[in-house]
Amino acid sequence: MKHENQKLTKPEETPTPERMKEALGESFETYQAFQKKLPGLELVEEWKYYNCGSKSWLGNGKYRWISPRGANKEKTIFWLSAWDGYFHIAIWFLDKNRLELLKANVSEKTKKQIRESKIFGEKMRTFPIEFEITDEEQLADIYELIAFKKRLEA
Fold first, then answer.
1. Reduced to 3 states, what is the DSSP secondary structure of residue 85?
2. pLDDT tens digits, residue range 18-70?
3. Residue 6, in any domain of the structure
4. CATH code, 41
5. Which of 60, 17, 71, 86 is nearest to 149 (CA)?
6. What sign does the dihedral 51-82-128-105 (CA atoms) show?
7. How far lies 38's CA from each of 43, 60, 75, 77, 121, in Å?
8. Domain range holding 47?
9. For the whole model, what pTM was predicted?
10. For a designed S-S bond to 61, which of 23, 41, 77, 133 qualifies (C-beta 3.0 to 4.6 A apart)?
C-alpha cells in the first residue's frame, strides 16, 4: 500500500472530531460508523502521538477483559491513522495464524493480502493486514478480522 499525505503529524494536532473531519473528508462518515461499532465489539480506541517512526497520532483499538483468575488483560487489535481522504487500519497477526486466518469469512482481496503479506521480525514473526478505508463496504472484512484476533490467545 502506498501512503501519501498523512494527517495529524504534529503533537498539537490532537485527533478531535473536527480535525478528523477535515483530514478524512468524505470518508469521515465511514469513520464515524466505525467508531459507533467499537463498543459493540468490546473495543476502546485510544490515541497517542508517536515521535518515532511515523511522527504522528495513531489510534489503537484495545480489547480489555478479566481473566478467569481475575487479572486485567489487554490486547491491541488494530492501529489506525488519518490520511488525506481516508483512514488507514492495520491489524497485525502472528505468522503461525496465517493458515487459520485464510479460513476467515473475508473477501478474496483480503485473502490475497493474507497470503502475500510480508513477515516482520525474527523471533516474533508478524504480518499486517492493511486497509485504506473510504466507504462502509470495506468495514465488513475488518469486523471479521477483529473477531478473529479477539479469539486468539494473548
1. coil
2. 999 999 999 999 999 999 999 999 999 999 999 988 899 999 999 999 989 99
3. no
4. 3.90.1150
5. 60
6. positive
7. 5, 11, 14, 11, 29
8. 17-147
9. 0.92
10. 77
